[in-house]
Amino acid sequence: MNQQEALYQYTLRLGDNALILGHRLSEWTSKAPLLEEDLALGNLALDLLGQANSLLEYAGKTEGKGRSQDDLAYKRAEREFLNNLLVELPNGDFGFTIVRQFLYSTFALFLYEELSKSKDEQIAAIAAKSLKEIKYHVRHSSDWMLRLGDGTEESHNRVQKSLNDIWMYTGELFEMNEVDAILIKAGIAADLNAIKQKWSSKIEEVLSQATLKRPQDAFMQTGSRKGIHTEYLGFILAEMQYLPRAYPTAKW
Amino acid sequence: MSNAKDNQGTLWEVFIQSKSGLPYKHAGSLHASDKELAIQAARDTYTRRNEGTSIWVVPAECIVASNPNDQEELFDPMNDKVYRHPTFYVMPEGAKHI
Q1: pLDDT tens for residues B40-55?
Q2: CATH no. for residue B21?
Q3: How far apart are alpha carbons B59 and B63 in whole angstroms?
Q4: SS3 of B69, please?
Q5: Collapsing DSSP states into helix, strand and coil, what is residue B28?
Q6: What is the pLDDT of residues A70-125, one digit of tens each?
Q7: Domain-located, residue A62
Q8: Range of the domain at A166
Q9: How many separate domains does chain B show?
Q10: Is the CB of residue B45 less than 8 Å away from at least one CB of chain A?
Q11: What is the value of ipTM here, to two decimals?
Q12: Which domain, by its residues, includes B30?
């Protein structure tokens, strides 16, 4: 694998995470527990969609086969997506969505902080721009973690259960392969071992404030680096890709 | 109105400053359980299209309002005092925000 191929895959990873999580959050539209939260989740979804747009555009350019961000979003099959399993998990209840968001956004915060110093100028620029949005996502989801965790018995039990259920999807965020090795050497990518330490201590800090227990690291799911996904991704793509696949020349 | 029961938290009034130095303007209201979430909800509800640079949120019950029935005694006496309006001056050329 050469550096260009590695950069293509790396940018896809970042872009697919933003795209799929953005799609998941958009599913809350009109269904959130509060009108205000409906708008908030919609805002987060749009932020992520914007990030996906920049990242997939850059991935297409890096690949050099003339594919646009739309081609990459709408015309790839499930096995070609490199997003983490965490972001494709169904929304569950509001607490589940908040836990998923909190775990992902905290990861993205530390990752993008590093990437804003990347030697690849485009990655650095996208990371710096996204970071402002991600800081808000961390704040919003952490504030909800505190309120739900340290709220009523019902809300506490629900987020604790969500946390326990989601935990086995967090190990995969930090997996590294040949792509990372090549790009870390080139000063482009971030070392995910270092990110993991920062992530762990931030997660522990918020969880203890929220009176929640950090689950034990046990069996961890894996697969996305090879394009192997949960059963849920196919359904997301079926909905997301239906229109451009059925009407390839549609414009709106 | 205060008897209306809902589970959406306190009612907050939102004031947005569009540019530093300009007055805060009432933008609308929202529900939130506490002040941090109220600020975030205000940001997400009322500044999505770049409307502001600063936000105030105030619990609606903390706002003391004049009684609409008192309108006559409070405001009508101002009707016939045209000399209170600064309309007898020539506007300086180039003056803004007047």
Answers
A1: 999 999 998 888 999 9
A2: 3.10.20.520
A3: 7
A4: helix
A5: strand
A6: 999 999 999 999 999 999 999 999 999 999 999 999 999 999 999 999 999 999 99
A7: yes
A8: 3-246
A9: 1
A10: yes
A11: 0.82
A12: 10-84
